[in-house]
């Protein structure tokens, strides 16, 4: 797809408004504290009793960082006291044991993701200890069926450690680069050399990692079109298998760390649109395929192949090639999806420790889906992953008449259809090239909980 088909600046500007990312439906604001530990245990039991229990996916949150990146809105603990991480690992292993006991041991763990914070804050020995605990509790699938990934801060590892991570069982890496420009790096307190990143990526290739991803952020302080173009030059030369290009949401009133960014260094709003247009133009010209949302991949990457053959999935980590799994969230703030429910752990380490010491799960809140939720989740996931809806397929799976059930949603899409973003026929809906960047806006039409002008979300473009 050519970038001029994908990017239409007047339409991008028109539809750039707050909206959910739809890593779940219903989205996190609908989670509530009435959903408690007993509800989670019941959901796990129901998931074991279905005719074909799903494989397991595990997310582990490692909240520790050695330094503060000013742009970061993640849940994190800034400390040089490694004993805190050692204590946290002990609590994690307790949660792993309690969680593992809830799931039938015939079910295999096919997917693992370590996020943060900085997962590589833990030493490789500690990560090995964690992997042993996970395998014991959740039973790793055969090597050829696994997608085991972790996020890597290039400032925290050496090439030798990259090889050790592969030996521990990880087969995918995501490097946080954000921007190579020295002035931008200094402005956000994340300084790392391009030589360092290139050396680590080469080490990952030499070690045999199946997929290497790089994260970039556009809209950071001091970024210009020229400076980010230089960063893209270097990224294209690096040739990662996948790229995630995130739009920076500057909300200093919500995130204390962002108050350390000088207001005069922030680019004007129109700059972000220019940077997005540049990113799409450069990456598509270099042969990358636009997957959706913020994601690009090489034509031969599994993510691209999954999009082409209709098996692309979406979960709390974004797009995935694996079939739908029951996802177990471990660690503070982590979110899981088990059966027809979502759950989220407590946010504070003291609460986390207290719950586990009492033999309890650290579930803080959650949500159990009803029939309407399941229908709308199916519609939104199908739209976000495949860019089209076959009304008959949805009707067959949920016993509805699509144009009657979703009359209001289809009416909301009228304007987008007039703008050439979506084509709606009697038998289905298809996102047109110019609408690919606005899929979140289309999904919003099917969201029963979204309130008009709701501003708690990031902007859709």
From TrEMBL:
InterPro entries: Coprogen_oxidase_HemN, Coproporphyrinogen-III_oxidase, Elp3/MiaA/NifB-like_rSAM, HemN_C, rSAM, rSAM_horseshoe, rSAM_sf. S-adenosyl-L-methionine 2 binds at residues 71-73, 117-118, 178, 190, 215, 249. Its EC number is 1.3.98.3. Pfam families: HemN_C (PF06969), Radical_SAM (PF04055). Its main location: cytoplasm. Binds 1 [4Fe-4S] cluster. The cluster is coordinated with 3 cysteines and an exchangeable S-adenosyl-L-methionine. It catalyses: coproporphyrinogen III + 2 S-adenosyl-L-methionine = protoporphyrinogen IX + 2 5'-deoxyadenosine + 2 L-methionine + 2 CO2. SMART domains: Elp3 (SM00729). Residues 50-285 form the Radical SAM core domain. It comes from the Bacteria. Its cofactor is [4Fe-4S] cluster. It is found in: Cytoplasm. Pathway: Porphyrin-containing compound metabolism; protoporphyrin-IX biosynthesis; protoporphyrinogen-IX from coproporphyrinogen-III (AdoMet route): step 1/1. PROSITE patterns: RADICAL_SAM. GO terms for molecular function: 4 iron, 4 sulfur cluster binding; coproporphyrinogen dehydrogenase activity; coproporphyrinogen oxidase activity; metal ion binding. One of its GO terms (biological process) is protoporphyrinogen IX biosynthetic process. PANTHER family: COPROPORPHYRINIGEN III OXIDASE, OXYGEN-INDEPENDENT COPROPORPHYRINOGEN III OXIDASE. Belongs to the anaerobic coproporphyrinogen-III oxidase family. Monomer. This is Coproporphyrinogen-III oxidase. It comes from Candidatus Halomonas stercoripullorum.
